[in-house]
C-alpha cells in the first residue's frame, strides 16, 4: 500500500507512537510521519505509507495552520501548559481589542524565533529536550520563520483578568514554534505567557475535514477498506510544479538520467519539479547545484 494516510492525531500520543500503532494495525514496516506534534497537541498528522515515505520531507516542509490559545500572566519551563511555572505576574490592566490586534500584526510576516529548550532541535548532536531534562540550558540557534496570517478568534472588545487568555489562528511556515509565538505575544504585552491550547488544523494541502481518527481506521482495517481512505502519494507533492513527459523520456527518468534543462519545459525560476507520466509521479528532479543548465534526480518515486 503506497500513499498518505491523513490521521487526526489524538492527545496523549507522540507522533512516533502514532507511527508505531499504524505499523501494527496495517502490518507494514514502511510507515513515517511528516512533522512532530507534541503529545498534548491534536490535529492533522499526515502518515506516509510504502513508497510515499520518499516524499515525507516534502510534506513536512509545507506550511501549517494552527488554532492556539495564549494565556498571559504565567510562563512555564516548556512554554506550554505541561511545564512547571517559571514566572507569575498577574495582569492588572485591561487591554483593548485594538491592542491585541496590534500584537498579532507585529508578529505577522518574517520573525526570528529561538527554539524552546523542550524541543527536538539538535545542538551538538543532542536534542534540546535531552539537555532540558538534565536541568541544563544551552545557547540555541535562532531561526527566521514566516507567519503568513494571525487571526484573533475572540469577539471581545476588552481583555482583562489576572490570567488573560485568547485564541488565535496562525498560518505559518515550517519550523514555527507556536509555543514560542505565544510567549512572544506576552512579551509584547509586558507579561509572562505560555501556550495553553494547540490544534493543527492543516498541514500543506491536507485539512481537518480529510482526516480520520484511529477509531475510524480500525473499522476500515476490519472491513479491508483501508485503500479507500489512503490518498495518492502525489497529494504530498501537489505544491511542486509538474512536467508531463512522454514514454521515451519516462524510461530515462526512471533510470535517474541527468537531463539538459533547456530540452524540457522546465518551469521558470523553479529549483524542483515533478515528472509525471500517465498521471503518475515518476520522480522529483532539481537543478544541478554545480551545473545549473542541467537537472538531476532528487527522488525516484516509481521504477
TrEMBL record:
Domain of life of the source: Bacteria
Phosphoprotein as UniProt keyword: no
InterPro entries in UniProt: PsdUridine_synth_cat_dom_sf (IPR020103), PsdUridine_synth_N (IPR002501), tRNA_psdUridine_synth_TruB (IPR014780), TruB_C (IPR032819)
Domain tRNA pseudouridylate synthase B C-terminal: 179-236
CDD domains (alphabetical): PseudoU_synth_EcTruB
Transmembrane segments: none
Substrates-to-products reaction catalysed: uridine(55) in tRNA = pseudouridine(55) in tRNA
Protein EC: 5.4.99.25
One protein family per Pfam: TruB_C_2
Alphabetized UniProt keyword annotations: Isomerase, tRNA processing
GO molecular function terms attached to this record: tRNA pseudouridine(55) synthase activity
Active site: 38
Domain Pseudouridine synthase II N-terminal intervals: 23-178
Family: Belongs to the pseudouridine synthase TruB family. Type 1 subfamily.
Role description: Responsible for synthesis of pseudouridine from uracil-55 in the psi GC loop of transfer RNAs.
NCBIfam families (alphabetical): TruB (TIGR00431)
Protein name: tRNA pseudouridine synthase B
